[in-house]
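Consortium newsletter contribution from the modelling node. Members have asked for a concrete example of what our holo predictions look like. Here is one, prepared for the iron/sulfur cluster complex that several groups have been discussing at recent meetings.
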Amino acid sequence: MPINQDFPKDYQVIGKHKHADGQHYHYVWGPGKLSDAAENENVIDNYAARNEELVPLGVHGTMVAVDWDSCFAEGACIEVCPTKVYQWYRTDNDIPAIQAANATSSGNGNDDREGRVDYTDKSDPIREQDCIWCMACVAVCPPQAIKVEQSNLEYHEKANQDFKEDTSL
Ligand code: SF4
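And here is the predicted structure:
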């Protein structure tokens, strides 16, 4: 299924995924709901090989929003983005995706289309603030997992006010 076109209406912030540069970060929104990724054979097989549970993950990013429950690691968005907004999250920080919601990543992850660790990897909008709103990633995503909406900045800014970080993480 495509990302919910009403996003982020009716979603709540469930995490803040940070870049180690201290400047870039994006919010993670839930609740997630099993979708295209949970029906993709490569994804199912690779989760099984890792002995990791395939669970709802939610949406990474607010203005550049990637539904990780729909993303099945095809990589077209990573290839077309002119400003390198995306990276493969596991190539930076190989942890279960649910934990990435509140992780800090270096930003040095792979940004080649075929650079995924495996099909449990996800396209991560680690440099969301660098988006120039060209919509190229939206156009090429097979499951239509991406919604780019500049005006969602208001939701991001509200999250800046409301989100309480767990500093023990
Ligand atoms: S809209 Fe364009 S600049 Fe923004 S993340 Fe997508 S491809 Fe990159």
